[in-house]
Every structure is written in C-alpha cells, then in structure tokens.
Amino acid sequence: MKNRILVIDHNSKFSDNLLELSKKDYEFYSAESVEEGIKLIREKFPDLILLDLKLNNGINGIDILKEIKMIDAFIPVIMITDNGSINTAVKSAKNGSENYISKTSSPYEMKSLFDKTIRSKLNKQKSIEIKQEIEKPFFNIVGSSEAVKVINEKINLVAKSPITVLITGESGTGKELVARQIHLKSERSNEVFVAVNCGAIPVNLIESELFGHERGSFTGAVQRQLGKFEIAENGTLFLDEVSELSLDAQVKIMRVLQEKEFERVGGNKTIKTNTRVIAATNKNLKNLVDARKFREDLFYRLDVFPIDVPPLRERKEDIPELIHYLLYNISIELKMLPPKFSNDTVELLKSYDWPGNIRELINYLTRSVILCAGKEITQEMIARSLIDCHKKDFFVPGNISLKWKEMNKQRKNAAEVASRKVEAEFAKKLLEKFDGNVSRAAEYAGINRTNLHKMIKRAGL
C-alpha cells in the first residue's frame, strides 16, 4: 500500500518534479489552490501534506497550516520553502508543522524526510495507544489463601520465560491481573502490556484490531491503523476470551505464534513480531476442540503453561484482605473517604457466594465508597438503606429464621437485593455528576460503557 502525499503549491513545476521522485513508493495528489487542497484532505486522507509557505493571492501558508490542523491534528505537514524563507519555515514549526524542505533539495533528501515523517506519525499513534494502556487502573493479586500462593508460585516460575501462558477461570476472577503480574515480573516489564477482549470485538473487525489495516482495505478504513501486535511489540499481548475468536482468526493467531510474523489487513508487507502472548478463557477449550469450535493446534500452542484461577467462593478467607486493599485503592481513585466496615459486615460479605467474583466485589465496594464515604457500614445500615424490606424472605436483623435452609435463602436474597439497590444509586449519581454523558461517566468510573448502559436500563433511569 503506497503512502499518500498531498502537495498544496501554486508552482506546478515543483509538483511535477515530485511526481518523478518515486512513483512506486508514494501516491501523489496536487492542489494549486487552498480550496482544492482542503477538498483533497477530506477526500483522500493523506499520510503527509507538503504545503508551500507562499501561495497565490498573497495567502500565507502558516494560516492554511492552522486550518489543516483543525481538520486533523495528526496529519503531518512539511513546509515547502524557497532558499530565502528558511526563517519563516522554522517559525511555522510553532504552529504545528513537522519540518520544512527547500524546493532545491535533492530527491534523496526529499524521500528521506518524507519516509521519516510518515514513520514518526505511526510512532506517535503507537505512543498514544501505549499511554492509554499504561493509564488503565491496575490492582494486585491479594490474599493469603493456599490458592493464591499456588498462583503466585506459578507466576514466578513462568515470568522469565518467553513461552505462551493460558489462564483459565470464571469471569471476574482476576485472570488479567495474573497476566499483568507475569508481565511485570518478566524481562519485558519495561515494555507495554496490551489487553484485548476478543469477545467484545465484532467478528469482521477482530483481524484489523489484532493485526492492523491499511487505508482503503475495507469500508471506513480511511487511514492506516496499527494493530495490537505492533503496539505490544517487545511487550506482552493479553488475549482475553480467546475462545470467542473465529476459526479464521485462530488460523492467523496460530501463524503468528509459529512464524512470529503477520501482515496488516489489506497489506502485503510481512511484519516480524517479538510480542509475548498470554491468553485467557472462562470456557473449557478442550471441550470446544472436541466440538470443532476451537483449533486443536492452537489449543496446544496456547496451553503450554496453564494457570487456573479459582472463583472467590473457593477462597473466602481472602475477602477481608481484598476489602481492605480494594477500599484503599478505590477511595484514592475516586478521591473520597472510604466507608468503614464492621467485623459483622465483613462476615456477612464473606457468607455471600459472589457469583461475579472479584469484579462483583470491586463494583460493590465502588458503590459503597460513592454512597457511604466516611461512614461506618453495619448490618443494620445495609438492612435499613440497601435492602428492599418489602420483599419476602429477605434478611433483616431481628427477623432472621432459625431454620438453616430458610436463613441461607434470606442471606443470599439480601445480598442480591442490596447489590441491585446500590447499582441503581451508583448509576443515578454518575449520570447526575456528568449531566447524562454516559461515555464520560463510564470513563470516570472505570467501567465499560456497555455495562453502564445495562446498569442504567436495569435501574429504569
């Protein structure tokens, strides 16, 4: 795929010289007027713009530079100058130009600068992606249970090795936390960790997301896009819900693991990769292999070193430590005082099975921080303010059944209703804080926008 270069210059002779520069490397477009240039920017989505400092009718190129940056701040612009206007070109850098070049420069100098500037654009794109990954909230693996000790031992064993790891466990158990710990303890710890939820990406876009795409490779591909493998180069790529990959995507993942190379969608350039892959799933991949829904060769490639993360209900002794650790970090993130949990309340939380595992516990504690910042949360407070007392069979202190089965039912129902109640209040307060802007609210709360939409719908807001 050729890089597109737009030349905005009233001197058609200079444009003709560029056309002869390297037709095999670039696709040139020429505009002699500002209006024509702006039109081509919106139609052709160039990778680079060459802009003359002195245009027709006394128009200053720097003014046009500002207009271009308003259309797309990421389009690199090189100013074209006469020998006598170098000082002006230097000043243009303050307004967003990447560089300048003289009309008398040699073809070699031009090509070198063009290639360098286009590469710089891709590197900036990668830097932005990396920054977004680094800024994501991160929690440690917390607990003193035997299960946590086994997980930590396995992490220490495999971290220094480059081999592929398969992490299994129910949704919300902390599989990504395990993957991040492996990365942090590896020799790649100074490089980026990139997480991809394979189940959240449409089937027709997953290959583009993983391997990137060239401009024009499909409808809507208006510019070259780096894939997650390129962004995670020399670092770690975490493929969550790997079981959701289509069979076609599985073939391409298999090739990357085997050959350490791939091509962008719509491209023909083979790209070498040194990215470590860690995969995770909440399903039994062996059963999917037997059902021919998952490739057997890929399964064995991924399952070199398996780590199973148990559900929270199987390590309830870790819940007090988790509550303390999570409350501290959530409170710092939200800049609010943490609520205080009495011993009785902690025991009540330990008695709950947490079907959503650590993710559900994090959500519950986040709501608690928002709704009860600085207050002590007791069983009585939960009963009074969070439980729908009009519902039958729900636990209220002083009205507890002395029959084990009935009490156990009251206990589970109480936690379920409390969770729904605080979830509704959580969504309501978030929407109020951001004037109904769901995207900003989700970003602030650190949750997926789709999940917040579901909360809003369940709450009837």
Estimate the mean pLDDT confidence: 81
The CATH architecture of the largest domain comes to: 3-Layer(aba) Sandwich
The CATH class of the largest domain, by name, is: Alpha Beta
Name the poorly predicted regions. Answer: 383-400
User: What is the approximate shape?
Assistant: elongated
CATH topology of the largest domain: the name is Rossmann fold
Radius of gyration computed on alpha carbons: 28 Å
Query: Beta-strand level of the residues, as a percent range?
Result: 5-15%
Instruction: Assign the CATH superfamily of the largest domain.
Output: P-loop containing nucleotide triphosphate hydrolases
Give helix % range: 40-55%
- N-to-C span: 48 Å
> What count of helical segments does DSSP give?
19
Overall domain count: 3
Judged by helices, strands and strand pairing, the structural class is alpha/beta
Could you give a quick summary of the protein structure above?
The chain is of the alpha/beta class. The chain is built from 19 helices and 14 strands. Helix 13 (319-334) packs across helix 15 (357-372), helix 15 packs across helix 17 and helix 17 (404-433) packs across helix 19 (449-459).
